[in-house]
Amino acid sequence: MTHFKLFFSTLLFFTLSGCTQQASNLADTYSLLYKGFPDAQYSQEEIQALPYASIYARLGDGPRGFLVLAYAEPFSHNQTALKWMSADSEVIETVSGRIVKTLKLPGTNLAKLDSDTPDPLALGLLNPTTPANWQFRIDFVPGYHFGYNASSTFENKGADQVAINGIMRDAVFFEETVTISALNHTYTNQYWLAPTSGKVLKTIQYPAPNMDAISISFLKAYQGAQ
């Protein structure tokens, strides 16, 4: 599989008085992380002082970048889509921890993910009544790749620990096996959930065929509806 480098934003200048709630002003504070730079790394104090929700993200074996929440928009089944953006307008969109769209990443991008039924991640994987199987559809570009049916199965792998910005957190580890029969393609996504809330702390996902895995660690949570 081709390995792409993801050019995410890194914090070059930090001052609380200079921060703004306007997503359009992000370029004043963030600049692109160029190939060959070390992973982004910020203290808990710096992350919490920013007025934005934030994540670390990495595409394949590229550098780890720091992204902030630019938009929160309604999504299907009463969910909220969170659009994490770099200063160069690269976007990873998540819903309940699942990547549902990417934009302006090098190589393949996930154009759309939808389903007729709620995502088990949204229903809560720790809820014993949540189904372990799910059906959804994806579109990906470039090319005419539209409406591919995918099926997934979640498996609870038990208690685990995961490092979030250098701090070890207790977690429940789930694996999701995704199959796209029309392409004879199967891949595995991974999720580390908070044991009490069930929210995703960290995930490693393959959003679409021909894409490298995207690893996301959720740093400062969005305070609106999930």
Explain what this protein looks like in three dimensions.
It is a single chain. 4% of the residues lie in helices and 50% in strands. It is built from 2 helices and 14 strands, in the order ββαββββββαββββββ. A 12-stranded antiparallel sheet has the order 7-6-5-4-3-14-13-12-11-10-9-8. A two-stranded antiparallel ribbon has the order 1-2. The chain is globular. Residues 1-35 have low confidence and may be disordered.
Biggest sheet strand line-up:
7-6-5-4-3-14-13-12-11-10-9-8
The total of beta strands comes to 14
SSE succession: EEHEEEEEEHEEEEEE
Q: Level of helix content? A: under 10%
Radius of gyration: 17 Å
Q: Unreliable runs, pLDDT <50, ≥5 residues?
A: 1-35
Beta strand %: over 45%
Provide a count of the helices: 2
Average residue-wise pLDDT: 85
Q: What overall form do the CA principal axes indicate? A: globular
- Separation of termini? 33 Å
Structural class: mainly beta
Largest sheet: 12 strands, antiparallel
Gist of the model:
By secondary structure, this protein is mainly beta.
Keywords:
14 strands, two-stranded antiparallel ribbon, mainly beta, 2 helices, disordered N terminus, 226 residues, 12-stranded antiparallel β-sheet
List the helices and strands and how they pair.
Blueprint: E1 9-11, E2 30-32, H1 44-49, E3 54-59, E4 65-75, E5 79-85, E6 91-95, E7 98-103, E8 109-114, H2 120-123, E9 133-141, E10 145-164, E11 167-180, E12 185-193, E13 200-205, E14 214-220
Antiparallel strand pairs: 1-2, 3-4, 3-14, 4-5, 5-6, 6-7, 8-9, 9-10, 10-11, 11-12, 12-13, 13-14
